[in-house]
């Protein structure tokens, strides 16, 4: 089973990363957080003072940046041009920049090439928003996670609070709704469920229950 290509998609706060890491850990597969790559491109734009409206320059940054993901699922490190940016890309400004640059077709094309290169050596569990529709349309297993906006906002707020940031559920809810809108309305591979993806509503499920359901899907389909 560790040779399978597993695609996990869904909006922010639906549990993609947690479930993806758990599956990779269980299967002994490579885990790739595609969002970290987009965050790295967004951070690079901030570092170079490149306007997020300058599409041509942003695309060039996406093509020229050297982005690497290293380590096991529980200790994943992100390197941008050989610098560890694991924590930096989770800051609010980098998150916002990532959500903007991710709407640019040229950026998405460059990131897709990067992601496919990372996964070329073997089995992989990759999460994102277009993994099953664009990055790996022929993935062995596709899972689409979702949850109500209220539940996702609460989860994300808890994550940010654990990182020591002063956030509120209401503010987080507004930010997620804005991100959902950009993701679903962008021209470049919008967030949609692949026709052959298995849908899991995680709103009323515990984390352990979601992981077990995902493992059941893998066992059934492998």
Topology:
Elements (H helix, E strand, L loop, with lengths): L4 E5 L6 H12 L2 E4 H14 L7 H10 L2 E4 L6 E4 L2 E2 L7 H10 L3 H14 L5 E5 L2 H5 L5 E6 L2 H14 L6 H17 L12 E4 L5 H15 L1
Helix pairs in contact: 1-9, 2-4, 2-5, 3-5, 7-8
How would you state the average pLDDT, rounded? 92
Strand content: 15-25%
Assigned CATH architecture of the largest domain: 3-Layer(aba) Sandwich
Biggest β-sheet: count, sense, barrel? 5 strands, parallel
Helix content: 40-55%
- The number of strands is 8
| CATH superfamily heading of the largest domain | P-loop containing nucleotide triphosphate hydrolases
Q: Number of helical runs?
A: 9
> In one word, what is the shape?
globular
Poorly predicted residue ranges: none
Q: What string, H for helix and E for strand, traces the elements in order?
A: EHEHHEEEHHEHEHHEH
Alpha carbon gyration radius: 16 Å
**Oligomeric grouping of the chains:** single chain
Distance between the termini: 6 Å
Just give the CATH class of the largest domain.
Alpha Beta
CATH topology of the largest domain: Rossmann fold
Give a summary of the structure in a few sentences.
The protein is α/β, with parallel strands linked by helices. Helices cover 50% and strands 15% of the residues.
Could you explain the architecture of this structure?
This protein is α/β, with parallel strands linked by helices and 222 residues long. The protein folds into 2 domains: 1-29 and 123-222, 3-Layer(aba) Sandwich (Rossmann fold), CATH 3.40.50.300; 31-121, P-loop containing nucleotide triphosphate hydrolases (Rossmann fold, 3-Layer(aba) Sandwich), CATH 3.40.50. 50% of the residues lie in helices and 15% in strands. It contains 9 helices and 8 strands. The protein has helices at residues 16-27, 34-47, 55-64, 92-101, 105-118, 131-135, 149-162, 169-185, 207-221; strands at residues 5-9, 30-33, 67-70, 77-80, 83-84, 124-128, 141-146, 198-201. The strands form 2 sheets. It has a 5-stranded parallel beta sheet. Helix 2 (34-47) crosses helix 4, helix 3 (55-64) runs parallel beside helix 5 (105-118) and helix 7 (149-162) crosses helix 8. The chain is globular and about 50 Å long. The model has no long low-confidence stretch (mean pLDDT 92).
């Amino acid at each position: 089973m560790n040779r399978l290509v597993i695609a996990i998609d869904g909006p922010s706060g639906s549990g993609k990363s947690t479930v993806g890491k758990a599956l990779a850990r269980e299967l002994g597969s490579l885990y790739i957080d595609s969002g970290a790559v987009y965050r790295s491109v967004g951070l690079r734009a901030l570092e170079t003072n490149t306007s997020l409206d300058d599409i041509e320059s942003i695309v060039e940054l996406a093509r020229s940046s050297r982005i690497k993901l290293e380590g096991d699922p529980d200790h994943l490190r992100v390197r941008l041009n050989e610098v560890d940016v694991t924590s930096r890309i989770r800051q609010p400004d980098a998150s916002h920049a990532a959500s903007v640059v991710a709407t640019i077709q040229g950026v998405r094309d460059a990131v897709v090439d990067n992601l496919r290169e990372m996964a070329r050596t073997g089995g992989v569990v990759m999460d994102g928003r277009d993994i099953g529709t664009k990055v790996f349309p022929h993935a062995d297993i596709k899972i689409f996670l979702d949850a109500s906006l209220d539940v996702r906002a609460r989860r994300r707020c808890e994550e940010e609070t654990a990182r020591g940031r002063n956030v509120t559920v209401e503010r987080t809810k507004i930010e997620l709704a804005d991100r959902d809108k950009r993701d679903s309305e962008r021209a470049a591979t919008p967030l949609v469920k692949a026709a052959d993806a298995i849908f899991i509503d995680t709103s009323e499920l515990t984390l352990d229950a979601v992981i077990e359901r995902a493992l059941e899907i893998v066992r059934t389909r492998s």
